[in-house]
Amino acid sequence: MAQHTSRQCKGYLTKKESDGVLHQMTWPPQSPDLNPIEMVWDELDHRVNEKQPSSAQHMGELLQDWWRSIPGEAG
Fold first, then answer.
1. What's the CA gap between 59 and 67, in Å, rounded?
2. How far is Cα 18 from Cα 68, in angstroms, rounded to an integer?
3. Which positions carry the signal peptide feature in this UniProt record (predicted)?
């Protein structure tokens, strides 16, 4: 995935920041905070560790059940 690091983009954002229009936040690239699916994987991992499935098939069934139980977006 491309990161927005071009000089033109950085220059534009720096100008807007100096004008007081925005504040740039420094976050590491690929931050889990910006990727909500990481929270889902963490929850699924936690659930697997709680249940200690006895086989790969059992784990697959549990994961599928848990995945289906995640509420979808409204609409």
1. 12
2. 47
3. none
Q: Give the pLDDT confidence score for residue 56 in this predicted structure.
A: 93
Cβ atoms of 51 and 57 closer than 8 Å: no
pTM for the model: 0.48
Q: How many Å apart are CA 27 and CA 29, to the nearest integer?
A: 6
Check: CB of residue 16 under 8 Å from CB of residue 22. Answer: yes
| Each residue's pLDDT tens digit, 28-65 | 777 767 777 888 888 888 988 999 999 999 999 998 99
User: Which residue blocks in the chain are alpha helix, DSSP H?
Assistant: 7-18, 37-51, 56-69
What whole-number distance in Å separates Cα of residue 64 and Cα of residue 53?
13
Cα–Cα distances (Å) from 35 to 10, 23, 31, 40, 73, in that order, read 22, 21, 7, 10, 16
